[in-house]
């Protein structure tokens, strides 16, 4: 079935009753879904503010020589975002999706101001702590709310559209900040657009977004729990953490692939601006390299999301990891002149990530029962976004001893191994109908 309906009876004082028809499906909920797509474009744009500029702010404005110190803003962002992801589902179940989304934007409001005018590197780190909380809450809620609305059959498409909006906006913002930096300097001009993103996102979330928890409750009423979970109505977070991290083979395969996928992103976030600057690529060229990766990643999911619904999650994940490994190979072996290698490698990284991203989210949703799906998605996104910190930390250590290009080689090897693990461990769970 692609449509469920029910009657929701609600009244605070129980003296009046009314009926409200609730239906699952993209067609049935397209207006609210479209608004959530717009909100996630703004969420993604907030991260795009940092993709081209912030590593160069560290090396050129604050004269930081250590790669690990420069990459510390990514580590701070990744750890905080991962931890926030972990509790976002619990908060959503307790306080509603909409309230958590609004809270995410409130944490995001100071970020562009700190990036634009922070007088020292510690202020940049503070901005990334707040950005990590904001992203962990706001992006998690756009994911959960779209899954709630879409229903089981179009889950891959829903995730493709969600991630396309977020990462497409991230890439375009990275390109725009590079352009502004060339013409107006590294700070503050490139971060003005972030002020608009934060205010617009908060207002949209307050005024036009509706909570979607009732849609998840409707789906849960028509789906049997997975074996071993029958006694749980809403399992404790510890149970969900264990189930998602290692007890369920599918969820383990998905979680480790998500971690390695974002390890690639965390590595490239810090390494690429410095690597290509040292190779003689100008700031606009670096802006293009940094933009191509998330733009291809984002827009590609419009295609790969439906493909995951049609052909299954596993093929998209396995081959997507292999394509990313090929992207690292193109950049790391320096077979072309630096700008060409950067652009071609970024296209492959973006294409591989586009194949993987919606399939991973959909695979978690296939396996986790709706009663604990939000928490399971939070655990998966915890491990996935720890990858930002792991990639930045790995890159900083490897770069210090072997050079920046070896961080690219090591990330490529880890990606290849991760794809093999999914190939061996994962089985198609089957989309719940």
TrEMBL record:
It comes from the Bacteria. Coiled coil: none annotated. One of its GO terms (cellular component) is plasma membrane. Its main location: membrane. The chain crosses the membrane at residues 33-49, 69-88, 100-117, 123-143, 164-185, 191-209, 316-336, 342-365, 386-404. One of its GO terms (molecular function) is transmembrane transporter activity. Residues 1-213, 250-433 form the Major facilitator superfamily (MFS) profile domain. Gene3D superfamilies: MFS general substrate transporter like domains. Pfam families: MFS_1 (PF07690). SUPFAM superfamilies: MFS general substrate transporter. Keywords: Cell membrane, Membrane, Transmembrane, Transmembrane helix, Transport. It is found in: Cell membrane. CDD domains: MFS_MdtG_SLC18_like. It is a multi-pass membrane protein. This is Predicted arabinose efflux permease, MFS family. It comes from Chitinophaga terrae (ex Kim and Jung 2007).
